[in-house]
Amino acid sequence: MDLIAAVVWHWWIALLLVIGTVPLVIATIVGYFTKVVGPRYNSRHQRETRSQSADDTD
User: Helix, strand, or coil here: 8?
Assistant: First the structure.
């Protein structure tokens, strides 16, 4: 009887760890792309603002 409870308990801990880990990994990847990779490439709004300010100074 104890062996059956141990197997069931094992699966519940695994399920809780997966539920907690998957969103953490996804948030880490999204955060990396927004904070590290994103600033390397200007957005369309930043390019338009920069070109308009360059036109105003001429």
Answer: helix
